[in-house]
Amino acid sequence: MDVTPAPESPPEPTGAPLPEPRRLGVLSRLAPEPMKVVLNWGRRYSLWVFNFGLACCAIEFIAASMARHDFMRLGVIPFAPGPRQADLMVVSGTVTDKMAPAVKRLYEQMPEPKYVISFGACSNCGGPYWDSYSVTKGVDQIIPVDVYVPGCPPRPEALLQGILKLQEKIARESLGERYAQQGARTPVDALRSGLVAAPPTPGEGGTP
């Protein structure tokens, strides 16, 4: 007759009990300081960029990503597949009231922690079109901005300086404080634009 041996019981702990493992996220303020330094170091040098090019400043962004300036040497990876794979949104160009809901919707799709660079005078405050009836007076009216890069349009070197400033901010960051400020998520209805109506569905007054 086969006899299955009973599982061995774990050895009795000796000495002082082990401390509970430290967890990150909301409780990251309890994480040891070296761990914060390592996490922030990895975060600042692996920024996947989602370029929201809306006008001529987008050409300067492209120039900054080419071989002459090459912001990949700073740890910035251009042209993320989409907002859900991006860490950094660069809004470059004139934000109109019609485009504002799309900017906000795509920002909400980015995972935390996420950052925004406002690139150029139009994105900062409306630029030369600030008094237009259809222009948003700065992208910070709809989403939080971490770094402002002035200019009309700014040179690629200005974007490189803005990236360095953002990396300095990330190096000093405490994720516990950042996540504590999230609060309630924006409802989906608030992200939908009333300017474009959805097409009618078959059987509800539309074409079958």
UniProtKB/TrEMBL annotation:
Residue spans of biased composition, Pro residues class: 7-19
Compartments where found: Cell membrane
Cofactor: record remark: Binds 1 [4Fe-4S] cluster.
Region Disordered, annotated ranges: 1-21
Protein EC: 7.1.1.-
UniProt cross-references to Gene3D superfamilies, sorted A to Z: 3.40.50.12280
Transmembrane feature ranges: 45-64
Listed cofactors: [4Fe-4S] cluster
Binding residue positions for [4Fe-4S] cluster: C56, C57, C122, C152
Main location: membrane
SUPFAM superfamilies linked to this entry: HydA/Nqo6-like (SSF56770)
Reaction(s) catalysed by this chain's protein: a quinone + NADH + 5 H(+)(in) = a quinol + NAD(+) + 4 H(+)(out)
Source species, domain of life: Bacteria
Ranges of residues in domain NADH:ubiquinone oxidoreductase-like 20kDa subunit: 56-166
First-tier enzyme category under EC: translocase
Self-association state and partner proteins as the record states: NDH-1 is composed of 14 different subunits. Subunits NuoB, C, D, E, F, and G constitute the peripheral sector of the complex.
PANTHER family according to UniProt: NADH DEHYDROGENASE, NADH-QUINONE OXIDOREDUCTASE SUBUNIT B 2
Family: Belongs to the complex I 20 kDa subunit family.
Protein name: NADH-quinone oxidoreductase subunit B
UniProt source species: Streptomyces hebeiensis
Gene designation: nuoB
